[in-house]
């Protein structure tokens, strides 16, 4: 048994996540966590909401709510949706937690003592009318690059150029619309990432098994242009972790907070503390401190490509730079983007299908299966309603669902709702056991390598083997001359349903539970030896014919959904 710490990139608080966010982080992390648990490993699976920063403050202002109240509400909404998709977090924390405040301030102190934080005086836009500095999205103006009139202080949405608020032409405050802005001096803290470049590069170079997507992005940030840059870790905002050295004030930094990219990954650790303090487990340090037993933990992170720089460089700089015995990540699984019907998913433009909407129209397994079996691993992937319909109908309804239904209904009609006795395996059955053993070994290898699409393909192929067997063995014909052999074939079929339910659980947990319930085989173990696993349900064992496991998606409803989700949400 191994110990697996698993974290998903923490979703930003300012809205309901779309299916791209889901498949780029939380869902594959859940798949892996479920698989590791099923194989008997000890797992701590953590996620949280990322609650600080300007977009949260602006979203709260737009909703007419105090930001703390807005975040608490949105956290509850996201937690409920996570449950709806069966995301099996051991704890779903909040980056605004007191634990994260304390830990972020403690890291800042250690980094400062190690000489890795420097103070920088900058000029920033100040709005006398609003009585505050206007960082990032608090300011809008015309893009100096493309002339777009609503470019934000941090980035132009039209041409995607990264901007500094002082670059904007005719800047205005997004709070009040004020245009009488002035440049004022303000001091900020920077993390001296440049001083850690060699250490970080040496560490990345040891990660020869990481996905190319992960290491190539890290290398680009390390070496492109002038190399890895120091980054500001503070902002002039109200909502956030106050800048302190542990619990002592930081002279000159009054009224400032740490910035999101610095405090958000620290929440991975704080979340384990929250988990313990919520009474869900004990000894968080055993997962996170190498001096307290975390040496044998394997730590895997999941995220979309835009989060890779912060996880390969910035957060490791925080950990390494602290000089303290924190657990470093062992494997970073990153994803390309999922696109939507010829364009991008977009939260700000309300484009695509969002988690709440998806669950309104179909149960979670339909989405889990499609998203995971089409995960954007080697390339960007695209969601289309046609593809979704085809894949659900073929893989889930025609192959897996149909198999379970045919076997159980035939058994009920000829032998009753109990596993029939009689007959012994022949060549065809021995061949099936051999083929299935090979397929399941391949499935396990792909799951262990976190090759999500390939694992889905191997699982589907295992389902197909059962269908082909049933087609060839044709117990409905055998039954006429040789009921004993038909009984053996159906007994094998019933055992295959049990087997499929067990191995499919990481992908489609609800269907798995339904089938195990129908087979009265709850708590069945992961297969270890198919010869005996396929005889686990013995003659006389009672079962029930399950309700429809997966229904087909019709053309009319598919067209309906296509139209309904073609505009803005
Ligand atoms: N289209 C996408 N496909 C796959 N992963 C994505 C996609 N968009 C975002 N992600 C990932 O989703 C996770 C959660 O993202 P987050 O909540 O920060 O929203 P985001 O990146 O701002 O997305 P958006 O800009 O669409 O709101 C991150 O790991 C991010 O990399
Ligand atoms: Zn622009």
UniProtKB/TrEMBL annotation:
Protein origin, superkingdom: Bacteria
Swiss-Prot/TrEMBL cofactor(s): Zn(2+)
Keyword Oxidoreductase among record annotations: no
Record note on cofactor: Binds 1 zinc ion per subunit.
Catalytic activity: tRNA(Met) + L-methionine + ATP = L-methionyl-tRNA(Met) + AMP + diphosphate
Listed InterPro entries: Anticodon_Met, Met-tRNA_ligase_1, Met-tRNA_synth, Methionyl/Leucyl_tRNA_Synth, MetRS_core, MetRS_Zn, Rossmann-like_a/b/a_fold, tRNAsynth_Ia_anticodon-bd
UniProt family annotation: Belongs to the class-I aminoacyl-tRNA synthetase family. MetG type 1 subfamily.
Name of this protein: Methionine--tRNA ligase
UniProt gene name: metG
């Amino acid at each position: 048994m191994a110990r697996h710490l698993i974290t998903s990139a923490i979703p930003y608080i300012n809205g309901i996540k779309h299916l791209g966010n889901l498949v780029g982080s939380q869902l594959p992390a859940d798949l892996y966590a479920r698989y590791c648990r099923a194989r008997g490993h000890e797992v701590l699976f953590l996620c949280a909401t990322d609650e600080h920063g300007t977009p949260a403050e602006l979203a709260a202002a737009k909703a007419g709510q105090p930001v703390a109240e807005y975040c608490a509400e949105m956290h509850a909404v996201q937690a409920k949706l996570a449950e709806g998709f069966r995301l099996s977090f051991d704890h779903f924390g909040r980056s605004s937690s007191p634990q994260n405040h304390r830990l972020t301030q403690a890291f800042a102190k250690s980094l400062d003592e190690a000489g890795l934080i420097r103070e920088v005086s900058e000029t920033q836009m100040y709005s006398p009318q609003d009585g505050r500095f206007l960082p990032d999205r608090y300011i809008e103006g015309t893009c100096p690059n493309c002339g777009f009139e609503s470019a934000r202080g941090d980035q132009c949405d039209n041409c995607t150029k990264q901007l500094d608020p002082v670059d904007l032409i005719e800047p205005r405050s997004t709070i009040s619309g004020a245009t009488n802005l002035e440049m004022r001096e303000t001091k900020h803290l920077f993390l001296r990432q440049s001083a850690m470049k060699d250490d970080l590069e040496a560490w990345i170079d040891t990660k020869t098994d990481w996905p190319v997507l992960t290491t190539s992005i890290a290398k680009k940030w390390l070496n492109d242009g002038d190399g890895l840059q120091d980054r500001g870790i503070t902002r002039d905002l109200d909502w956030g972790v106050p800048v302190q050295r542990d619990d002592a004030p930081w002279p000159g930094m009054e009224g400032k907070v740490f910035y999101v990219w610095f405090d958000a990954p620290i929440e991975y650790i704080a979340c384990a503390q929250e988990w313990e303090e919520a009474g869900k487990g004990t000894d968080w340090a055993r997962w996170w401190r190498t001096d307290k037993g975390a040496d044998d933990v394997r730590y895997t992170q999941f995220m979309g490509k835009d989060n890779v720089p912060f996880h390969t460089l910035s957060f490791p700089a925080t950990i390494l730079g602290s000089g303290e015995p924190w657990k470093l990540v062992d494997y970073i699984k990153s994803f390309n983007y999922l696109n939507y019907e010829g364009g991008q998913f977009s939260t700000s433009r309300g484009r695509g299908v969002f988690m709440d909407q998806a669950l309104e129209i179909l149960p979670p397994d339909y989405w889990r299966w499609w998203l995971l079996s089409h995960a954007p691993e080697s390339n960007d992937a695209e969601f289309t309603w046609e593809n979704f319909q085809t894949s659900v109908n073929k893989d889930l309804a025609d192959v897996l669902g149909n198999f379970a239904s045919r076997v159980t209904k035939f058994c009920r009609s000829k032998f009753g709702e109990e596993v029939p006795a009689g007959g012994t395996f022949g060549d065809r059955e021995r061949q099936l056991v051999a083929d299935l053993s090979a397929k399941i070994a391949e499935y396990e290898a792909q799951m262990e390598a976190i090759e999500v699409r390939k694992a889905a393909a191997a699982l589907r192929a295992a389902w197909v083997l059962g269908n082909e067997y049933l087609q060839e063995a044709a117990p409905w014909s055998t039954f006429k001359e040789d009921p004993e052999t038909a009984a053996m074939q159906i007994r094998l079929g019933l055992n295959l349903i049990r087997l499929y339910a067990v191995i499919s659980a990481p992908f489609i947990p609800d269907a798995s539970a339904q089938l195990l319930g129908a087979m009265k085989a709850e708590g069945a173990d992961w297969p270890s030896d198919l010869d005996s696993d396929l005889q686990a349900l013995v003659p006389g064992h009672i079962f029930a014919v399950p309700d429809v496991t997966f229904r087909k998606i019709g053309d009319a409803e598919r067209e309906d959904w296509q139209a309904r989700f073609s505009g803005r949400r």
